[in-house]
Amino acid sequence: MKKVFFKQYIKNPKLTGSVIPSSSHLSKAFIKNMDLNSGTILEVGAGTGTITEHVYNKMENKSKLISFEIQEEFCNDLRKRFPESTFINKDICDIYDILDLKTIKDIKYILSTVPLLSLGKKKSLEIIETYKKIMLQTGATYLQLTYTPFSPFKYKNFDMTCKRIETVWRNFPPGNILKYKIIK
Questions:
Q1: What's the chain's average pLDDT?
Q2: How far is the C-alpha of 74 from the C-alpha of 66, rounded, in Å?
Q3: Alpha-carbon separation of residue 44 from 92, 143, 170 (angstroms)
Q4: Which domains does the chain have, with CATH numbers?
């Protein structure tokens, strides 16, 4: 899978965001900050499925995983590996055209590894607006991977709070997991 990942990185580094896939240490850091007993986990930027696999293996039967992955080769592989989950080969900004409102209202977590800083300001803001809309409708918690020690966007402009909940040094590059909540 690492060869496929590197090939995708060469084709489009802005979408892939890193030269190598996330480590299992990063995956475990996400998992320990989530309650996977019920509700829908919305994964955005599933990539090769390193984090997907850990979420999938820890989910209870009452939980559901829906993943958006814009790179078709990754998405096709994930569908084969995790046939009970839903993998959508579309942009997350199209979620309201793809999923019904009832499915969206069950979202408990948005787990994003989308490389916001490399996508450019306009696209990043469009994605954040989509996350915010979901959070307002569901009360979902939004977890974001970033390779910088700070938020990749001005979260206060989106009426959100932000807290760095974990730095994973055993990942290349080291990753930070940020937790966002809507200010009530």
A1: 88
A2: 14
A3: 7, 10, 22
A4: 2-182 (3.40.50.150)
